[in-house]
Structure formats: structure tokens, C-alpha cells
Amino acid sequence: MRVLFLTKYTVTGPSSRYRVAQFLPWVAARDIAYDLQSLHDDGYLARRYAGRGMAAGYLAARFAARAATLARARDYDLVFVQKEVFPHAPDLAERWLNALRVPYILDVDDAIHLFYDGATGWKRALRGKMERVYAGAALVLAGNQHLAEYARRFTPRVVHFPTVVDTDRFLPGNARGGGNPVTVGWIGTPETVRYLNAATPALASAAREAPFHLRVVGADAPRVEGVTAESRPWSEATEVSDLQAMDIGLMPLPDDAWAMGKCSLKLLQYMSSGLASVSSPIGSAADILARDPEGAGLLARDESEWRRHLAALVRDPALRTATGARARRVVETHYSLARWAPRFVDALDAAVAGKVPVFDD
Question: Burial level of 26, CB count in 10 A (0-12/13-18/19+)?
């Protein structure tokens, strides 16, 4: 079998790294030949995070490179599409694959249909795009149950395939518990730090009850009254040690349609690192934490719960230790790369055979 992987980003993009790249060693080990083409280059996200616009020439060149790769679609038994072939453009490529009878897997870990639902202006032509893309896929891998339910409106060929982490890499650090002050942390990007910024009133309120230090990885730290804070640049080389230096992880999210498509990567990173965490019950977070009814993390629905849960964890090192240990077990059992990588390869085989795999997740 030969597979063409069409990712949106190189490994610098978290979604491409965790939804595709980390599985490729297992693909190769199964004697499956593959090629990978990323729509954007290594510097794209850095330029975007810096607020620099994308030149028309860059976009034209990258779209042309993808089109040239796709022109060889008949050379492959399967095309794996991360999100969509050409963002913010008609679904001609997906329709062309259907015409060629080359099956494609669609992998979604965001509610990208929202880009087009109710679109106005020239984008009116893109209304219904994702519905057609879902319907034409040989198999849809949905990153959370909300996305899976949406996809099943257009096709029965849907599997819930969660985002997972390498538990051999994201390991608990040395026993914390005695740190003073306690370090509360967040990891993400300059685009998603707005969710943390929105939670600053709750953080300030919690800090008045139980002081802590804030560490932000991958973005500028917000100013929080009464809280010392530091910002650290994200790098693949230091992300594990940055997580291990935290005592508590945060994942605030708004209750909106876009956030419902979130697949809780940062929560899984905290949990795999043995951290206690406080999260909004949005996206897949509630499903993940429900794996351990005794408490693998705390869910906060409003500012009062954020304040109460965070202050409780800051004050109680034994609670942090016990919660972090349960969190680690949940990830090892349900959300580890070792568990899901063979299933990723099984999904490739199934799509080529016209079947829908059944996974006990």
C-alpha cells in the first residue's frame, strides 16, 4: 500500500505533529510506503504568530505545490487529508479524488465547518463545503465526540479518534509538592493564549486565597493582579521539562461552537506529565476526565469554580499528587500513543478496504 499524507503544517504545527507525524514510524514499520506534503512551510506559523500577513506569492506557490502533488493521486492507494486539501477554497480536490476513485481519509480536530457555515460575500460559494467533504470521505477520523456527531450527519463512515500523547516522552518529573510558591502553568500558542487571558479575573481571585507563580509556555503571560508570572518560548526540546516544572495545569475555554471542537491536547500533556489540572468542561475535556470518577482533574464551569478549584489545589500538595497520579493512569490506559498508533495504521488499511474500523476507546 502507498499513502499520500496531506498535512496543513510541518511538525512545527501541533495539529499536524500530533494527528499525523507522530504515527509515521508505525506506518513505516507496517511496510506501508508513504509521502508527506505540508501545505505550509516551517516558518508559516512563526510569521502568523508575529502578525505578519501572508504574501499572495507565498500562498500561490504553496497551493501550486500541493496541486502538483495531488496531480499524482493515482499513484497512491489512499490519500490522508488533514482538515481539508485547500483551506478557504472550493472542494474541487476532494471531488476530483472521488472521480478518480482514490479513497481519502479526512482527519478533523477542529470545528472547521464553522469557517463556511453562514458565510457571506464571496465565501457564500463555500457554504456546504465541509458537508460534501465529509460525505465523500472513505473514513472520517474525528478528534472528539462532538466532531464525530457532526460528521455523522453526512456519513456513517466516522470513527472517534482522539488526539493522543507519547507517554514515554511526557513523563512525570521529580516529586514536586514542596515547591514554594506553587507553579501554575499553561502551554499553547499566541493565538490560543486569549483563552487564558479571559480567565485572569479567576486567577487573581484564587491567588488572593492561595498565592502561586504563573508559567506560560508558548505565548506572553497575561498580567494577573497579585501573581508573579514568566513567559517561556515553546520548543520541542524543552516542552517536556517546562511541563515537569509545573505543579498544576490550566485549560480554560469559552463555551462556544469553536471551542466545542477542541480535542484537549494541553490537558493530555498535563495529565501525562502527572499534573493536577483545572479545565473548562468544553470539547473533549469532560469525556477525558470522566474516565476516572474519583478525579483525574477538576472541571470549572464559571469564575467561582475556577477560583475554588485552583485555590484548593494550590493549598493541598497531597491533593495535587493524588490527582496527578490518577491523571497519568488515565492517559496511559486510554490516550497513549502506544495504544492508538497501531489503530492509526489499522484505519489506513480499513479505508482502502472500504471498511470502518471499530475501536474500543
Answer: middle
